[in-house]
Amino acid sequence: xxxxxxxxxxxxxxxxxxxxxxxxxxxxxxxxxxxxxxxxxxxxxxxxxxxxxxxxxxxxxxxxxxxxxxxxxxxxxxxxxxxxxxxxxxxxxxxxxxxxxxxxxxxxxxxxxxxxxxxxxxxxxxxxxxxxxxxxxxxxxxxxxxxxxxxxxxxxxxxxxxxxxxxxxxxxxxxxxxxxxxxxxxxxxxxxxxxxxxxxxxxxxxxxxxxxxxxxxxxxxxxxxxxxxxxxxxxxxxxxxxxxxxxxxxxxxxxxxxxxxxxxxxxxxxxxxxxxxxxxxxxxxxxxxxxxxxxxxxxxxxxxxxxxxxxxxxxxxxxxxxxxxxxxxxxxxxxx
Length: 336
Known about the structure:
CATH superfamily of the largest domain: Response regulator
Oligomer: single chain
Distance between the termini: 62 Å
CATH topology of the largest domain: Rossmann fold
Structural class: alpha/beta
Number of helices: 15
Number of strands: 12
Largest sheet: 6 strands, parallel
Helix content: 40-55%
Shape: elongated
CATH architecture of the largest domain: 3-Layer(aba) Sandwich
Strand order of the largest sheet: 2-1-3-4-5-11
């Protein structure tokens, strides 16, 4: 959309891009707006012209025409301390950001845990500010996804909903991953296998505990919250109550790293005395001594699938609410 002000400022206009590319104004508009209804040859010519002229789309004008903000919120329901401490979040942000950038979309990163942060978040997430929202680390039956959908803000979440079949989500097969890890410990001759759980108000925490119980039944369990500190405290409780433990499945690498510190403090050799497996296959697993055996969940693919599902919703191709569950794999290292 050309204005006298843009001409006066010397900023390249849509018409100038069209002239340089040898195409119509409408073709340039479709390329700028990410439409697929453009031939590869015309798209390349327009992109070359944009680069040569230094053209920058007028985002406010585009919003008036398309009724879109070209912004997507990535909302993480944890403290800032937890966000920066756990590698899972960094890998997910990197994956999501790379896809959004390729689609010329802005990512608005929001971290909310305290009640006041939550109130500000709910006030901001409207169609006037964002087209859609990607939600990470929801706890319990959080009403926010339904609230946003009622407002017309498309949502996709990490993790299946706790007690409802509605909502679009992407998840790893947490139960199968935990089951494989614990079955491996059993196959190695371990007889007293304990678990350190994640938070049980999250689907991932419940599913990983269920996978452990699929193999062990009612074995020794200590509860954590995915943090290293909770892994340390849980390992301490397990050793106090079950001193004959010879293997531990921890529902995250950070908790496994905490457990490893406690085992070392008590002189328990890993893996000779106690085998140890984590979950996530994060950078943490590579930097412990010994390196952690861990369940790899495809975080990069999860992020890409979240964006794909969200963009399908925004483009009107969302047929039914549902989810995608991606497979995990066990990565064997020195701790087991």
